[in-house]
Specification:
CATH architecture: 2-Layer Sandwich
Number of strands: 10
Number of helices: 3
Oligomer: single chain
Shape: globular
Largest sheet: 10 strands, antiparallel
CATH class: Alpha Beta
Order of helices and strands: EEEHHEEEEEEEH
Length: 218
């Protein structure tokens, strides 16, 4: 009998705020913007060892594995030195292809950004444009309370879906709702430090946030 993997418990004292969902479509250009954000409050001692480039990279991997679980394994992510592709079942069905991730990190903020390159779900206008998927974590220390508040946002911006209005309505009623559910689980994994191991491991080992490269260098 196969044992079901138990979720890691949330860190004692951690609090996960309500997820705020903002999804909109520009009526003129048809560009989709979808942003889900929430606060996670943690004891300061719980975040210290994890605020570094290596764990930011692991947060990025955790996002993809979470989305994969919610899609019941129908999709997976393929990695190359220059691309990340969201694939449906077989390699030929590349739904979304992104450029390799860009990283920004300092003492107060960590960002992972994948720029949209092409894909079956992307219209011609949205290929190699200014569209992107981004995880943005803002850190707010509260020394008097010995706590840290992390505002975690996952955003898709300037995404031009294929098939115009039909695809946009499908996005609002399917992909967007799935993304909200998966983001809730993603937040819980962050609050329990249940981070997946990076497939690339580009930053494995750096001891401090100051050693993170500038955006575009990874």
């Amino acid at each position: 009998m196969t044992r079901r993997r138990r979720s890691a418990p949330v860190i004692p004292g951690a609090e996960i705020g309500k997820l705020h969902d903002e999804t909109s479509v520009d009526p003129e250009s048809g560009a989709v913007r979808s942003r889900q954000a929430a606060d996670i409050v943690l004891p300061t001692e719980a975040i210290g060892p994890f605020w570094n480039p290596e764990h930011l990279e692991r947060v990025a991997r955790t996002y993809w594995t979470t989305l994969q679980r919610f899609m019941l394994g129908l999709i997976h992510v393929e990695y190359t030195p220059t691309e990340r592709a969201v694939v449906l079942l077989i390699p030929q069905l590349r739904l979304l292809t992104f450029k390799a991730p860009e990283y920004e990190m300092d003492a107060c903020r960590g960002i992972v950004r994948w720029r949209i390159k092409k894909g079956l779900l992307v219209s011609k206008r949205g290929r190699d444009g200014d569209g992107y998927l981004e995880i943005d974590i803002k850190r707010h220390d509260e020394p008097d309370a010995d706590r840290v508040r992390l505002n975690v946002a996952v955003e898709v911006a300037n995404f031009y879906p294929m098939l115009g209005g039909i695809s946009r309505r499908l996005y609002a009623n399917t992909q967007s709702k799935i993304h909200v559910l998966s983001c809730n689980y993603f937040l819980r994994r962050l609050a329990s430090r249940d981070l997946a191991t990076s497939r690339v491991g580009h930053f494995a080992g750096p001891p401090s946030a100051e050693q993170a490269p500038d955006p575009g260098s990874a």
